[in-house]
Write a structure and sequence with these properties.
Layout: H1 5-23, H2 27-38, H3 42-57, H4 59-69, H5 80-95, H6 100-114, H7 119-132
Helix pairs in contact: 1-2, 1-3, 1-5, 2-3, 4-5, 5-6, 5-7, 6-7
C-alpha cells in the first residue's frame, strides 16, 4: 500500500495548528508531536513545519477571509479542529497555487476523519464559496 505523504503531511499540519491554537504549543514541538503520533518519516516533518509556518505567517489575512465567508460564525464559535482545517484550506486556496479542487477535497476528507459529523459539509461550504467568488 502506497502512503499518500501529502495527505498525512496535511494531517500533521492541521494537528500542529490545533496544538498551537488550543494548547499554545510552539511550532517545533507541535509539529514533532503530530509527526510522531502519525509516525511520519523525518523528511516529511520539514514539509509539515513549512506548512505550519506558512499558515501562521498569513493567519491574519486567512482569518479575515474565513470570517467573511463563514456567515453566522465567528472563529471563536467554530470547533478548533475546523478552525485549523479552514486555515490550512484557505492558505492552500489563496497562496499555494494548489488546484482549488484538491485543496477543498483534502480539507473535507480530513474533516471527515478528525472532526464532527457535519464538519465536512461546513468546511466544503466555506471553501466552496471562496472559490465561487
Amino acid at each position: 500500500m502506497e502512503i499518500n505523504f501529502r495527505h498525512y503531511t496535511r494531517v500533521a499540519t492541521v494537528m500542529a495548528l490545533y496544538a498551537i491554537d488550543v494548547g499554545r504549543a510552539d511550532i517545533e514541538s507541535a509539529v514533532a508531536t503530530s509527526c510522531d503520533e502519525l509516525e511520519l518519516p523525518r523528511r516529511w516533518r520539514r514539509l509539515a513545519t513549512r506548512g505550519v509556518r506558512d499558515v501562521l505567517e498569513k493567519q491574519q489575512e486567512i482569518d479575515a477571509k474565513i470570517e467573511e465567508f463563514a456567515i453566522g460564525f465567528t472563529l471563536d464559535r467554530m470547533a478548533a479542529v475546523d478552525r485549523a482545517l479552514l486555515r490550512l484550506g484557505v492558505y492552500e486556496l489563496l497562496f499555494s497555487g494548489m488546484p482549488k479542487g484538491v485543496a477543498i477535497n483534502e480539507a473535507v476528507e480530513i474533516a471527515k476523519e478528525f472532526s464532527t459529523e457535519d464538519s465536512g459539509r461546513f468546511i466544503n461550504g466555506i471553501l466552496g464559496k471562496m472559490t465561487a467568488e
